Amino acid sequence: MDQLSSAYNKMTTTMSSAVNGSSEAAAAFKKLGVSLKDENGYLKSSSDVFKQTIAQLRSIENETERTAYAQAVFGRNTA
């Protein structure tokens, strides 16, 4: 459970970085097709982003690619 909590916290930090202008963090979510904002331009909840990110990762068949995206969003220790 600690690893899941750590991954969730790292994703929240990555979300914040993306919203505050980090092109690397924003690119990670964009490549996964995960939007951080809703249709009204408001920041989505970290829970919603987490669920969408997991769903997108599950759809990637190439394990190497999937791991790279997971590490970009959740940190190196979570893959």
How is this structure best described in words?
The chain is an all-alpha fold and 79 residues long. It has 4 helices and no strands. The chain has helices spanning 2-19, 23-32, 46-58, 63-74. Helix 1 (2-19) packs across helix 2 (23-32).
What's the alpha carbon Rg, rounded to whole Å?
Answer: 12 Å
How much beta, percentage-wise?
Answer: under 5%
Q: Are there runs of 5+ residues with pLDDT below 50, and where? A: none
Largest sheet properties: none
Number of helical elements: 4
Number of β-strand runs: 0
Query: How far is the first residue's CA from the last residue's CA?
Result: 14 Å
Helical fraction equals 55-70%
Please tell me what the overall shape is. globular
Q: What is the mean pLDDT?
A: 90
